[in-house]
Design brief:
2 copies of one chain form a homodimer. By secondary structure, chain A is mainly β. Chain A has 2 domains: 70 residues, 2,3-Dihydroxybiphenyl 1,2-Dioxygenase, domain 1, CATH 3.10.180.10; 64 residues, 2,3-Dihydroxybiphenyl 1,2-Dioxygenase, domain 1. Helix content of chain A is 14%, strand content 40%. An 8-stranded mixed beta sheet of chain A has the order 2-3-4-1-5-8-7-6, with helices on one face. In chain A, strand 7 and strand 8 form a beta hairpin. Chains A and B meet through strand 1, helix 1, strand 5 and helix 2 of A and strand 1, helix 1, strand 5 and helix 2 of B. Chains A, B: It holds the Pfam family At5g48480-like_C. Chains A, B: It comes from Gossypium raimondii. Chains A, B: This is VOC domain-containing protein.
Chain lengths: 162, 162
């Protein structure tokens, strides 16, 4: 029903947006992401291609907060991230859960297209340092409950920013 | 801790298992999978590569039950499936949610390896006609709450079995 409302395309066609990668991002209750990464390596033979972390911010924290660990598995990439109540609010979902990262050069156009199709944008597009290994990121919830992170292509994966 | 218990590998190394594909499978409350597929086409430009359905089983059902629709998106494949209380019990998860299909030629070995790493096998390996587009399928829940479907490679995608 929303297609008729699209302003930036023809009456029957919305703007073309191309995506360069799809990466499931597994949210894990902090600080278990590092353990989860080890499990996926041992259980499935996943290979870690990079990890972005925050340093310990509290003396009692034994492990750094994993913003995003990138794992190569079966020709695909998955991301594993610590999620905590008091951190990374822009990628926080309702509890832990899998979100789907879609990379594109045009974050705003992609979000606009998804919204015109019936998705709901959540929050603002921000400069993220957690989701999808950095870059700009916005969030769209689809009508079926799944959260899609629309983000600019990962360019800094593997560079620890901590 | 479980690695020492593995019988089919060396004391420090478990059997090699290779995976040929990773496909996030989005479970959607039946009968909304067809709508979800249309949404992903419109919102993200996903291309449908195949769909396996059950025929209508009740006169009041307006749409066939989608066992698995295969969508190509950003160089990856996602699966979209109707999930209902009274059907496809072998892939039923707690409510709707994303599961991760891992394809391999050796389902049993892959499950054994995941279990030795700390995963929990759920149910028996069965001949599935829903998950991952047919073939043999087993289920492993990892210590972080994610469900992995370990299945033989999809060979029948696009062939409607109804």
């Amino acid at each position: 029903m929303a297609q008729e409302e699209v302003q930036n395309g023809g009456p029957e066609k919305v703007a073309e947006v191309s995506f360069t990668a799809l990466k499931p991002q597994l949210m894990v209750e902090a600080p278990k992401a590092a353990d989860a990464v080890q499990f996926y390596k041992t259980a499935f033979g996943a290979v870690e291609a990079g990890r972005t972390v925050y340093p310990k911010r509290k003396a009692e924290q034994e492990q750094p907060h994993v913003l995003s660990a990138q794992l190569e598995l079966a020709g695909s990439t998955i991301l594993v991230s610590d999620i905590a109540d008091n951190s990374t609010p822009r990628v926080k979902t309702e509890g832990t859960g899998c979100v789907l990262c879609l990379e594109t050069e045009d974050v705003e156009a992609a979000i606009a297209k998804a919204v015109s199709a019936g998705g709901v944008a959540e929050g603002e597009v921000t400069e993220g340092d957690g989701a999808c290994c950095g870059g700009r990121v916005g969030k769209v919830k689809d009508p079926y409950g799944y959260v899609w992170l629309i983000c600019s292509p990962a360019k800094k994966c593997g560079d620890a920013e901590a």
